[in-house]
Amino acid sequence: MTEADIKIVIFQLLKQIAPDTEPSMLLPGDNIRDTLGIDSFDALQFLVALDEKLGIEIPEQDYGKTATLEQLVAYVQTRMK
Amino acid sequence: MPCLQCQTSNVQWQKVQCQKVKIMIEFKMPSLGADMEDGTLREWKVKPGDTVHRGDIIADVETMKGIIEIEVFDEGIVEKLLIKEDEKVPVGTVMALIKPLAAEAEIKKEKLPEAKPVEIHPIEEKPATPTMPAHEGVRASPLAKRIAAENHLDLSAIHGTGEGGAITREDVEKAIGERDIKLKPRTPETPAPAASTESIRMAVAAAMSKSNREIPHYYLEIAIDVSKAMAWLTEANRQRPVQKRLLPVVLLIKAVAKSLLEFPDLNAVWENGLQQKKDINIGFVVSLRTGGLVVPAIHHADEKSLDEIMETLNDLIPRARALKLRSSELSESTMTLTNLGDGGADAVFGVIYPPQVAIVGFGGIAEQPFAENGMVGVRPILHATLAGDHRATDGLTGSRFLATLKNHLQKPETL
């Protein structure tokens, strides 16, 4: 998957979790949860959806490495290799 | 003179009917919170003659908090629907009459010959409920017979697909489904909840205004070192797939529920005095993305495991945000818990949801300097608060409750 493909998947899943937000407007350095107003419950639902869609399970200790959009995309790319 | 309620003039029938009316269960428009004054019936889910059991959903009612599935809390047979769909009625209005199952036997007793009053008119022997065709000679499983009887279905009209042509449960359920479709054309999908941001805001405003007007609050706060709880949770989650992970709030819910076991005066309502509640149903505040909040109940939270509480949240929170809750979830909370989550304020001092008498608030967990045993260290600290109704309890009770809560969170493995 290209970086653009990964972003599309991330935006789709975030939109499912928080339908009233516009994930595609996220800037690379934006903190995803803070910018979209996602609470811990929705954040966990997003991780579950990401696992089901891409088969990537993000352990708790890596949460800090996936806070911004660019961090998350890079993390997914690395794990998919 | 005819019976005022059942409108029959036959003397004996009147007696039987009046006896029936007297023992009918009146199903009323429920109050789904202190803020609810009326509700609009959107759809009946039952019809006269249907058997209902405790917990069955019998109607959809539109409130300021969306379209709520209304459950029945008795067992019986629906006798009469008194309210039409799309009718708006005040809380407490009788919506339907339900004949309790136990009443069946009583009514039959009334009809025994020795119980007959002296009567000069011919007596029409009407059964209290529609009779069922006898099932003698029909090959059917006992379960199939029972389901057919409960649904007033004639087994002789069903083609059996079981061994030797016996009628199975599946055959009966299929026949009931086909009959119900004929009786009532399938209605379109329930429309989206009509509750708006404004109506939710007004519901919250009404409840909170009533609370502030009537309840003399006292407030307490305690700082809790949650390093042990967080370490336990991290380890527990390390061993779980992402679908089974627990959120910190699950520990908080269980710790509050266990603490309430020791302080029943806080698990109570104030209605003409303090009334303790037997069950511990934690009202969990769910913020809506568009503003406002709803507070569904986590029933029997003290009896649930941490995994069961998480499963309940997985079910409740999405439905709460979609405003698709059941009446019991909106009306049976015995104490409220509000949790701000991480990244926000350190503490929240709640407003009690009447007629409850207490609300526990949790701020975000943040690293802070913390002194213990003469040493200062940096620890994850959680500020827990209690707002109590001073009519019901005093600060000492609340203080002991918070200390107990703190102790439970130091032993996460026992939660």
Round the mean pLDDT of chain A to the nearest integer and report it.
90
The largest sheet of chain B is:
7 strands, mixed
CATH superfamily of the largest domain in chain B: Chloramphenicol acetyltransferase-like domain
Of all protein chain pairs, which has the greatest interface, and how many residues does each chain bring to it? A-B, 18 and 18 residues
CATH topology of chain A: Non-ribosomal Peptide Synthetase Peptidyl Carrier Protein, Chain A
Q: Which regions of chain B have little confidence, pLDDT < 50, spanning 5+ residues?
A: 1-6, 8-18, 111-136, 183-192
How many distinct beta strands of chain A? 0
How does the major sheet of chain A shape up? none
Proportion of helical residues of chain A = 55-70%
What do you see in this structure?
Chain A has four helices and no strands. Chain A is 58% helix and 0% strand. Chain A has 81 residues and is mainly α. Chain B starts with 10 loop residues before the first helix and ends in a 6-residue tail after the last helix. The N terminus of chain B is likely disordered. Chain B has ten helices and 19 strands. Chain B folds into three domains: 93 residues, RNA polymerase II/Efflux pump adaptor protein, barrel-sandwich hybrid domain (OB fold (Dihydrolipoamide Acetyltransferase, E2P), Beta Barrel), CATH 2.40.50; 64 residues, E3-binding domain (Dihydrolipoamide Transferase); 218 residues, Chloramphenicol acetyltransferase-like domain (Chloramphenicol Acetyltransferase). In chain B, strand 4 and strand 5 form a beta hairpin. Classes of the chains: A mainly alpha (81), B alpha+beta (415). The interface between A and B is medium-sized, with 18 and 18 residues.
